[in-house]
Amino acid sequence: MHAVIMAGGKGVRLRPFTTALPKPLMPIGERRAILDILLEQLAARGFASVTLAINHLGPLIHAFVGDGSRWGLDVSYAEERVPLSTAGPLFLVKDELPEHFLVMNGDLLTDLDFADLLARHRRGGAPLTIATAAQTTRMEFGVLDVVEDRVVGFTEKPSYRHRVSMGIYGMARKTLEPYPPGLALGFDRLIQDLLRQGEFPDSYDFEGVWLDIGRPEEYDEANRRFGELEPALLPVRSEVAA
Questions:
Q1: Which of 5, 33, 97, 153 has the smallest C-beta neighbourhood within 10 Å, fewest atoms?
Q2: What is the pTM of this model?
Q3: Hey, what long-range contacts does 19-25 have (CB within 8 A, 24 or more apart)?
């Protein structure tokens, strides 16, 4: 099994921390980098190889991970010369990718079973399988229902329950075929293109731990909770054949 980790972002929302460290190398629990945890999880789930897409402070990531042997993984690199958004770096290694593979952001913590997601993707036959989590958004205002300039309904600060992308995907290599190499392609556009074409992605509904470490308050929460979450985030390695 193969995974691609998107680790090239500048981490603008976490500045000034990310002026010196790339976001995937930010420490969690004062002793483990985010990327270290992700690589440990992939190895524990039976993945054999990983591609790291790097750009911002990429040499630091390369120096930290090396060839991946510390985790029992074969790690290679795709280096962006210009920003290619969240899916564009896949074109740099498209010819080296297996028929089905995992893609994930390099700045999240979750106890999702990556191998199960990839297996579900293979069975489903969809061009893309999106790991989704349930989130509740509470409006800070009263919401009006307006019809022909008349207020016909009112709800005070309602809450809405919806599913959001976790930034983890099972993907078929053929999904990249319609796009030219070097295109700055985001997963948002890719999903919208698939919907327009009637090629509907599958949803992998997940209810476990998921922390997207994109803002200072989320990073602080991850550090506060790491002691509690560590047993779930760092499972004992299985003997699953890669």
A1: 153
A2: 0.85
A3: 21/57, 21/60, 22/54, 22/56, 22/57, 22/58, 22/60, 22/61, 23/106, 23/107, 23/213, 24/61, 24/106, 24/107, 25/57, 25/60, 25/61, 25/64
